[in-house]
Every structure is written in structure tokens, then in C-alpha cells.
Structures
1.
Amino acid sequence: MRELVKERLPEFSSQDEVNVTFDFVGLNYYTAYYAENTNPAYPDRLRYQTDSNVGIKAKKDGVSLGPQAGATWQYVYPEGIKYLLNHIKDDYKDPIIYITENGYSRVLAKLSESETLDDSPRITFHFNHLQNVLKSINDYGVKVKGYFAWTFTDDFEFTDGYTIGFGLVHINRTDNLTRQMKRSATWFSECLLKN
């Protein structure tokens, strides 16, 4: 890190060091990318996003990592959560892990109300991710103690505003903010009751 960041990284003394302990790891997982060495990465625009000299891309040899969801940055790769959970177990002394965010985006403006409410791709997304989480638990002994879907309702999403929906509940912004459960909300409730 010091070699890459140089003088922008402050000096730390042994008195500055802190012994880090934690009760659990909170993991947000939405997508995965291929990584490649981009040395030197943007030498004229040094900043923390490029200090690692790593470029990310969703395609390798013209083949996508997985299907693209509604958000331009999200590619569906359920196996990635399993690999990440296993990696965390191996490299961080087998901690307790809570998956604090995992969700599927859709472009709301392109959907009719019935298409918005019938969000079968979101159900498939959560089902496949939960299957991979179970593989990590059952086959690799990862200590996952919780899984939280992002998000309860369609909300304001950073650069996408209200155009992208991750929610299990639809908020109709043209009809007095009425709320309707999507199929994924019903599925999620049934899944929790059964399992």
C-alpha cells in the first residue's frame, strides 16, 4: 500500500496501532466482477479508487459474468456470495457473518404496475443466493447468522433515484404513495415460515 499510495498515506507509529476485534462481520453483497491488473491505473488521476491498480469488468473474453439486473452496475452471480463467505471464513479467523444487504434491482420506469408487482426475477435472485449461502453453511461450516434482503420498500437509490427498485413492497409515487406487496414479499414471508 505504501508503495502505491506513497506520500498520500500518513505515517503510523507503533503507538497508533490498534488491536482490532469484532463481534461479527456485516456483509453487503449485490454483484461480482472480474478483476485485472491496471498498473499503473490512471497515473494522472491518483485517488483512493485507483490506488489498488485494479480494474473491474463484468465480461471476460466477451462473456458476461451473469445476466444484468436493472441497475447498470449489477450482474447476477449467486455463486459469488458463496465464494466470498468461504473466503471471509478462511482469511478472517472464521467470524460470525450477517449478510446485511442483498438485493435485486429492476428499472421501475420500464414496467407496468402488474410487472412491478410480479417480480419473479427477484424471487429467483434471492432463492439462488440463499441456496449458495446454505452451501457455505452446510459444506464449508461458515457461521452465517442472518440474511437481510435489500430493501423492504422501493427507496431512493443513490445515483438512480426512484428509477430503480430493490424493494419487496412497491410504493406508487403517482397514487398518494400507496403500497402494495410484490410477489417477492409473499415468497419471502413463506420462505421464512417454512425454514
2.
Amino acid sequence: MKNPPPYAITSVDNALRLASMLQLEGPMRVADAAERLGVARSTAHRLLQMLVYRDFAAQREDQRYVAGPMLAHGTTPHSGIAELRAVVLPHLRELAVATGETANLVVLVGTQARFAASVESMQALRVGDREGMAFPAHLTSGGRAILAELPPHERLRVLRQLSMGHPVAGDNSIDPIEGAAIVERIQRLGYAVNDQETERGVTAVGVAIHGPGTEGGAAITVSMPTQRFATVHLPGIVGAMRAAAAGIEASLVEAAQAAEALDAR
């Protein structure tokens, strides 16, 4: 259950989101932070300076900020997340419009499905921005879709780790046999569903994406209030998601080719 507290403190939320961005995406300038948070540069600068003071960030000689010592242990190895996010985001916006629901990019970090980007639905009743949140991979639609696409040996490694439980979030362990059954079903269907297994009142559908920058495991998801979800809607949702996934994969190939051409000059 991860709903915003009734008296959310915006400055604290922005600081935590910023720390998560640094950890997940790598080096960031003040202007980048300001744009991502939707705040003035002066505000972003103050937030970054406080993160530096508390060792959640550090400033390099080129003036860019990176994750600090307090985040070093959990720093993700996915160095291309920022580039992946940039390519995927326009497609998420289109997917949010096509489905009328919140669209997300999810990446696998260890055993966690982490939300790297989120585009909210325009409906009054909607699932909020998920960016920066992380859940055990086997509980989320995006995480399940990723697990189903991993090489067998890698999937077994992740499931074994998940079978030992999650010390922070409580006993979210999974039986390996149960995990294998979930994976088999997703491989047969081509998509995954999470019906209120991470948050009460929230249902999500996940589809894996492939291409340059997704080698660690990535998926797109559509999240919606459970009261608006019905099985009869699944074909339309999945169809829109598959179209978005195809567009993303084509864009990833184009971006990789453009980068290669630039490097060859």
C-alpha cells in the first residue's frame, strides 16, 4: 500500500525523488533536476546542496551531481536508464492518452521492479505518479513481465533471491514453484496482471520491452483504479500496450544507430 500521506510535504517528496533519480539515472545538472521536478533552478539547487550535505549526493568537477555515499550500496548498474527513459517517455504519453490511464516504465534493479518514468492519466480518479517507487519484482505486473523474458538461469537466480523474502517490506517471499507457474502463464499470454497485489484499489497490466538499453530487463505498465478495470477491457489495453512496445523498440534501435553514427565520426 503506497498512497500519498494526507499531509504530504512537497519539499521532502522532491528531495527523495531527486535522490532516487540520481541513484537510478546517474549524473544530473541543476537544470535537469529543476525540469524533472517542475521547480525553479534555485529550488533544485537548494535541494541538491542539502542532499550533498547529508551524503545522499556528491558534486563532480563538471558541476554535475551524482549519488552520494549514502546511496552507493544500492546504486543500480543500469547506466543507460536516463537514455532509456528519454526514448520511452513520448511513447508513455501516447499510451496514457490511448488507454486513459497512467503509463509507466519499469526496470529490474536486483530483485526489485523500479518505476523509472510515469505519465499520469488525465482522469480525475487516477493512479498517481509512480516514479522512484520499487516493489519486489514478482508482485508487480512490470516485474512479472520482465521475469518471464529473462534468460532461464538469470530468472532462477532472481526467484531464488525472492524466495528468501524481502527484509524491508516484510515477508513478500515467493515459492519457486509458484514463481515458475506465474512465469509460464505470462509467457503464454504475453502480458502480466497485478490485481491489487501491491496496492489496494490499484490494478496494472505489464508488457516487456526489448532493444538496446533494456538488457537488464524493462517493461511498460498501465495502472488504473481497480473499480475501472474489467477483464473485458484487457484486449484493448494489451493491444495499445503492444503497439506502444513496438514503437519503443523501433525508437531504441534508431537511437542506438544514431549514437553509433555519432561515435564513428
